């Protein structure tokens, strides 16, 4: 009898382990592993001392606790949006005051000693975001830089309270919507995951038209954007001719268009064996 009970317990434990293994899931890998997400670019800012870090931690503790309480409240009381009406834009970033500029990081090739371009993100006379500056094709004479001329604005990394990294879940949407007023130049839009004229215009770009790139290189192995793992968004000014540029931005939002059924706009092809596929 004791042996029978022991066998039943052992079999039950084995069955429990099997069930656990069956329901265990891992995140799908959408791209290759990168040991250095910055691509070799180092942060040259001086690292604060231990005392300064302690002071900064205590100063931000009240704000972090308030964010944590809001997250808990939203989890229990939040009413998630279940219906996405056509033509309705959910604004993610809107430029309306100076605090909205704190959500963006401004960089250029000059910051990394790879060129002489300069740019800034300010508020225009209309109170909207103004991404402007001057592109320079001049290259530094170091024998290392082959091409120059880019300026970029990028949103800060999505985080929860206490600086925990998180994602922006854009799964329900299939359109990126922007209200902008440009200068005739072309701009590169980048959706980061783990891509005008004198009048205001509403620009809608399907997510299916974005393609996979890394460090400025288009990848052979393409796939649709994993919209549930978006970490940031950026706009880059980079063209083949130098000069001033100006892009005024009112808002950047998301929309679900049921008439757009395309999942991915680009065809894939099978490479012969022995050819690298990165």
UniProtKB/TrEMBL annotation:
InterPro entries linked: Galactose-bd-like_sf, NADH-UbQ_OxRdtase-assoc_prot30, NDUFAF1
Residues of the NADH:ubiquinone oxidoreductase intermediate-associated protein domain: 93-249
Pfam families, sorted: CIA30
GO MF assignments: unfolded protein binding
Entry annotated with the keyword Zinc-finger: no
UniProt key word RNA-binding: no
Domain of life: Eukaryota
SUPFAM superfamilies named among the record's database cross-references: Galactose-binding domain-like
Localization, UniProt: Mitochondrion
GO CC annotation, single: mitochondrion
Gene Ontology annotations of biological process type: mitochondrial electron transport, NADH to ubiquinone; mitochondrial respiratory chain complex I assembly
Keywords: Chaperone, Mitochondrion
Assigned protein family: Belongs to the CIA30 family.
Name of the protein described by the UniProt record: NADH:ubiquinone oxidoreductase intermediate-associated protein 30 domain-containing protein
């Amino acid at each position: 009898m004791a042996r029978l009970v022991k066998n039943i317990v052992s079999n039950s434990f084995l069955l429990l382990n099997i069930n656990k293994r069956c329901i265990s899931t891992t995140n799908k890998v959408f791209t290759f592993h990168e040991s250095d997400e910055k691509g070799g670019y180092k942060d040259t800012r001086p690292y604060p001392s231990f005392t300064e870090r302690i002071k900064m931690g205590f100063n931000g503790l009240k704000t972090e606790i308030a964010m944590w309480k809001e997250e808990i409240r939203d989890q229990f009381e939040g009413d998630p949006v279940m219906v996405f009406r056509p033509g309705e834009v959910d604004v993610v970033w809107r430029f309306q005051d100076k605090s909205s500029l704190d959500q963006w990081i401004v960089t250029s090739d000059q910051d990394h000693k790879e060129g002489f371009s300069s740019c800034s993100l300010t508020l225009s006379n209309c109170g909207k975001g103004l991404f402007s500056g001057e592109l320079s094709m001049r290259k530094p004479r170091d024998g290392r830089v082959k091409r120059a001329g880019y300026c970029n604005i990028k949103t800060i990394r999505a985080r929860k309270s206490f600086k925990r990294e998180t994602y922006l879940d854009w799964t329900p949407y299939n359109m990126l919507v922007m209200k902008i007023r440009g200068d005739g130049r072309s701009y590169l839009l980048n959706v980061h995951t783990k891509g005008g004229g004198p009048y205001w215009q509403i620009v809608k770009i399907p997510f299916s038209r974005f393609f996979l790139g890394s460090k400025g290189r288009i990848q052979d192995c393409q796939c649709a954007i994993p919209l549930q793992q978006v970490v940031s968004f950026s706009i880059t000014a980079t063209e083949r001719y130098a000069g001033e540029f100006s892009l005024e931005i009112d808002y950047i939002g998301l929309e679900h268009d049921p008439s757009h059924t395309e999942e991915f706009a680009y065809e894939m092809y099978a490479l012969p064996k022995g050819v690298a596929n990165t």
